[in-house]
Design brief:
CATH class of one domain in chain B: Mainly Alpha
Structural class of chain A: alpha+beta
Number of helices of chain B: 13
Shape of chain A: globular
Distance between the termini of chain B: 136 Å
Largest sheet of chain B: 2 strands, antiparallel
Strand content of chain B: under 5%
Distance between the termini of chain A: 25 Å
Helix content of chain B: 55-70%
Order of helices and strands of chain A: EHEEHEEHHHEHH
Structural class of chain B: mainly alpha
Strand order of the largest sheet of chain A: 1-6
CATH topology of chain A: Alpha-Beta Plaits
Largest interface: A-B, 64 and 67 residues
Oligomer: heterodimer
CATH topology of one domain in chain B: Fumarate Reductase Cytochrome B subunit
């Protein structure tokens, strides 16, 4: 399959946080952890924009490069997954991640970092049977194995958040910008993929 | 009339076609209001502040940092220069010490060990030294494992075993930070008065500390080299504690940018200290006959003491015989 990505059309995002809620519900995300969140830039000022952000499943993912136990895997769809069996909760992926995606349940001593949790692009985990109860408990839903896209994008009320083949969602976004005449760009793409959507 | 209308209709139909042929040009907004005029731009924010931050409605306020590309710079440092610096310092120092051993050999007590000893370090001094030393060894090994273990140990024992070992090493790194820090503080308090640099140390360094040849520069309780070790441990250990606790309690002290810098400082100081301590361990064990006794039983050979710490030995002797007469 192709290279999947997220794209948040900030001109459509209304900061409703439905993606955040959908993600928490679909994946039974641990208390205190948000795999996806909505950040409002220039809040209350002219030109304010809201951007829904989770793991961007980067090309040459910084988290994977810095992991001291090499627990990251990239799927055929270019989704970046990590093994919670191998993760030691050191926190390095958080320092490296440009998008603040990795989070740690407060389980351990002092450092209070348990095994890292982040968006899996609704692809479950790297090990075990797809869609198994064990996989769900550890990583959350595996919608991709069922042929479905991540729930955050699927149920976005304004269709601001797009998920799917990077080429296709870039084309959808390009057409939108052409049609309506403006667009603040694909937030995070330059950082995550070293390319942006040119309109 | 009909012809003119037809031409107008054709023209109207042609306009969107022209747009379709040049898809890179945006149409004027249908509403007449152009939100792009005031809109916040990602690249402008990144250029101005090097990161994008905003307001967030979930309780986790640290998630308000939307994009911080500095993480990629940190990644490039960690997977590139850090590995080379680590290899250069650890392997380089070991090679240097091996070379020194091959050339100079073990520094012997001239004329062999004597029969009489003198107390160099009391029980408490030895205790605080070994608490610091033992925890430092585990901290150094677990730290090096984080830096390079996945390239050195992982291929040997496999991913599952390596992950288990690294997990335990991470816990030991966190826990042993406390005895290490306590040991450094104790050593500072107990030994600082013997470690104030003075003119004698310059002379000691000028003579190369007696490492080469058989002359022994004058020295009191600690010679120039030992004072250097003391200050490396106190200042280096202090820096390691400060940066280490910053990393151990994420977000209590600083944000993600601060933690990246703290990690770089922590690693850099650690490596300098590992280099220095390899030298300290060498000269305190295989490198010099009689040196390990000082920290082992605390009793050193008087001949060793006379050679390496002549002025200190004289002070001790003077104290043990308050009348001023020599003991023998």
């Amino acid at each position: 399959m192709a290279r999947v990505k997220f794209l948040c059309d900030a001109d459509r995002c209304i900061d409703c946080n439905a993606c955040v809620t959908a993600c928490k519900n679909a994946n039974e995300v641990p208390w205190g952890i948000n795999r996806r969140r909505v950040v409002t830039i220039n809040d209350g000022k002219p030109g304010e924009r809201s951007v829904s952000m989770a793991c961007m499943h980067c090309t040459d993912a910084p988290c994977a490069a810095v992991c001291p136990v090499d627990c990251f895997f990239t799927t055929a769809d270019a989704v970046v997954l990590h093994s919670k069996d191998l993760c030691i909760g050191c926190g390095y992926c958080f320092y490296a991640c440009p998008f603040g995606a990795p989070q740690y349940p407060k389980l351990g001593n002092f450092g209070s970092r348990g095994k890292m949790d982040k968006c899996t692009y609704c692809s479950g985990g790297p090990e075990g049977a797809d869609g198994s109860a064990a996989e769900f408990a550890k990583y959350g839903a595996n919608r991709m194995a069922e042929g479905k896209l991540p729930l955050c994008a699927e149920m976005c009320s304004t269709k601001a958040l797009l998920a799917g083949d990077g080429e296709i969602i870039a084309q959808i976004y390009r057409e939108r910008v052409l049609k309506r005449g403006y667009g603040s760009g694909a937030w995070g793409w330059q950082t995550a993929y070293k390319e942006t959507v040119n309109v | 009339m009909f012809k003119a209308a037809l031409i107008a209709l054709l023209l109207a139909a042609a306009i969107p076609t022209a747009h379709a042929q040049a898809p890179s040009r945006q149409e004027a907004p249908a509403s007449g209001f152009n939100p792009t005029a005031t809109e916040v731009k990602e690249q402008d924010l990144l250029n101005a502040l090097s990161k994008v931050e905003g307001r967030i409605s979930i309780p986790d306020t640290r998630a308000a940092t939307l994009i911080q590309p500095a993480g990629q710079t940190w990644r490039d440092y960690r997977r590139g220069p850090l590995l080379w610096i680590t290899a250069a310092i650890v392997l380089g120092m070991m090679a240097l010490l091996t070379l020194f051993y091959l050339i100079r050999g073990r520094i012997r007590i001239e004329g062999g060990r004597g029969t009489r000893t003198v107390l160099r370090f009391g029980a408490f001094e030895r205790f605080m030294h070994w608490v610091t030393a033992a925890s430092w060894c585990v901290l150094a090994v677990s730290g090096l494992n984080i830096v390079a273990g996945s390239r050195v140990l992982l291929p040997l024992i496999g991913q599952d075993a390596f992950s288990t070992v690294s997990g335990w090493l991470k816990y030991s790194h966190n826990f042993l930070a406390f005895p290490f820090t306590s040991g450094v503080v104790l050593m500072l308090l107990v030994w600082v008065r013997h470690n104030i640099p003075n003119r004698m140390d310059l002379e000691w360094f000028r003579q190369g500390g007696g490492l080469f040849g058989h002359r022994h520069p004058h020295s009191r309780k600690f010679n120039g080299g030992q004072k250097a070790v003391f200050w490396i441990v106190v200042l280096g250990g202090g820096a390691l504690a400060a940066t280490g606790f910053t990393l151990m309690f994420p977000f209590y002290i600083t944000d993600v940018t601060g933690m990246q810098l703290a990690q770089i400082a922590h690693g850099g100081v650690s490596l300098l200290m590992i280099g220095a301590m390899l030298g300290h361990i060498y000269i305190g064990s295989v490198g010099m006959e009689g040196a390990l006794d000082a920290m082992n039983s605390g009793q050193v050979d008087r001949k060793w003491a006379a050679a390496h710490h002549d002025l200190w030995l004289a002070e001790v002797d003077a104290k043990s015989t308050p009348s001023g007469h020599p003991a023998e």
